Amino acid sequence: MNEHLTTEPVTLPTTRPPGCPFDPPVALAPLREEQPLRPMRYPDGHVGWLATGHAVIRAILADSRFSSRPDLLHLPTARQAFDGPLPPVPPGMFNNLDAPDHTRYRSLLTGKFTVRRMRQLTARVEEVTAEHLDAMERKGPDADLVTAYAQPIPALLICELLGAPYADRDFFLEHTATFNDQNATAEQQMTSFSAIGGFLHDLVLAKRAAPTDDLLSDLTGSDLTDEELTNVGLLLLGAGLDTTANMIALGTFALLTNPDQIDLLRADPDRAVEELLRYLSIAHTGARSALEDVELNGRLIRAGDTVTFSVEAANRDPAKFPNPDVLDLGRHATGHVAFGHGIHQCLGQQLARVEMRVALPTLFERYPTLQLAVAPEDVPLRTEVDILGVQRLPVTWQEVAR
Amino acid sequence: MRVVVDRDPCVGAGMWVLTAPEVFDQDTEDGRVVLLDATPTAGHASTRDAAPACPSGAVTVTG
């Protein structure tokens, strides 16, 4: 092992620069430039690792010697610190499983989320988007873009994909909004989580009894148990709602504060969406644990060590992306790790892309005078959570005769 | 240029369809990579991008 490498452990930087709502914690960049993989002290006293470089993070995420099981992890932040290890993974929560357990679930789902299938949803995404833009206009000329637009669009789409009856959608939207509300009490969030779990369990039983044309019905033909199916449904919801909703809301905020970029969004929405994914990196941090000793970047990672990886540091690595702190919707941002990398790379990424490439340009097309209704520094951010975003995005526009 | 795909590690992320749709397709049933053209004569730059874009090392491009 190299003698010149730092052995003094750091802690995970979490302080975000005031007045820069889209930037990672300031201390990450110097750590990355110095050593993209270095020792880190965890809140429970464990000395593991912090990965901040794009190349080393891709190597870790593609390496099956690193596990995704939470019961093997030391948690990187005190906010999440528990006294003991996390419980074993419930059946069906395949994002927290390694191969071959993960493979069994993922291979059942991969064919349901292909590029072609998701692009076939484009017309439906356009319809849902137009309905919400109409509703905004009726109530306008101002709105909270989070509740009026960013949250309901992905919620309705995932509802339809899973096959939830139309009549249940208000119930479903209400509870998912509470569960994802940073200001809700823990009790309110647990109540909503249980309500969603119960809702999905009932839905699984209903689809088994009378299958319709949707994802849950399709999966009742597999060997998954009711409990596994319910948890797969919960996972797809959890992964598909808050993420896309925050990309739409935070993406709009970024565009409103960088208005020179809006023409580039119109010119090439596919390219623009990739850059927004890179620049915003809303799923900002993750962790893996080593199942055996691994040599990487001249370091020896011991079996049992936790490695925390900073997605936002990787996506701002100048070795991969020149001028990484500049939002440039004309850049070729492919290769970012906003959806992760390796076998756990986001299953729903093609759905998210379709939703964003419709929802973002259509919003600015319909409301060319869209602007923030408050000063940028008064937009309440979501930073104390796993997924970055805004709590509310007050916007306004000039009404035009139609 | 020679393109080789290994369907075994493929997780169906679909990056190759986005990068080089004339060379790769996605199986409609299992979502995994399907090779349309093992020796493409055009579009070499985008085909070369497909290997690092793949999250699971299922695509190899040589030459």
Summarize the structure.
The complex is a heterodimer of chains A (402) and B (63). Chain A has 402 residues and is an alpha+beta fold.
Number-wise, the strands of chain B total: 4
In CATH, the topology of the domain at 36-151 and 241-396 in chain A is named Cytochrome p450
Q: Any guess at the CATH architecture of the domain at 36-151 and 241-396 in chain A? A: Orthogonal Bundle
- Overall SS class of chain B: alpha+beta
Helix-and-strand structural type of chain A: alpha+beta
Q: Percent of residues of chain A in helical segments? A: 40-55%
Order of helices and strands of chain A: HEEHEHHHEHHHHHHHHHEEEEHHEEEE
Beta-sheet strand percentage of chain A? 5-15%
Count the DSSP helices of chain B: 2
CATH homologous superfamily of the domain at 36-151 and 241-396 in chain A? Cytochrome P450
- Summarize the largest interface: chains and residue counts: A-B, 24 and 21 residues
Q: Which sequence of strands runs across the widest sheet of chain A?
A: 1-2-8-5-3
What distance separates the N and C termini of chain A?
A: 70 Å
Shape of chain B: globular
Largest sheet of chain A: 5 strands, mixed
Radius of gyration of chain B: 10 Å
Strand sequence of the main sheet of chain B, in spatial order? 1-4
| Average pLDDT of chain A | 91
